[in-house]
Design goal:
This protein is mainly α and 87 residues long. The chain has one domain (13-83). It is built from four helices and no strands. The chain has helices at 13-25, 30-44, 56-66, 77-83.
């Protein structure tokens, strides 16, 4: 297939660097990732990932997690299960 079309995108440096670090770990270049995304959109006829706005509770938990606040660590699956029934 002729690879002659070009896509340009601008994004902040931190997002670019963090994303490229992940891609490097899995052996994928940024170009590979963009090609994969576009191929999936073309094949599916829709965006390949469900995008949703989190509700207020989820947004709050994600915000706390981003700040490394109110994090609970558990040692086992049993501890996780018991944490669901704590009041």
């Amino acid at each position: 297939m002729n690879q002659s079309a070009t896509v340009h995108a601008r994004l902040d440096r931190e997002t670019k660097e963090r994303s490229e670090s992940v891609l490097k770990e899995i052996g994928m270049s940024p170009t590979d990732a963009v090609r994969l995304l576009y191929r999936q959109i073309a094949l599916r006829g829709e965006f390949p990932v469900e995008l949703r706005v989190p509700n207020a509770i989820t947004a709050n938990v994600l915000d706390l997690s981003d700040r490394d606040e109110d994090i609970e660590s558990l040692e086992s699956i049993e501890d996780l299960r018991s944490s669901w029934t704590r009041e």
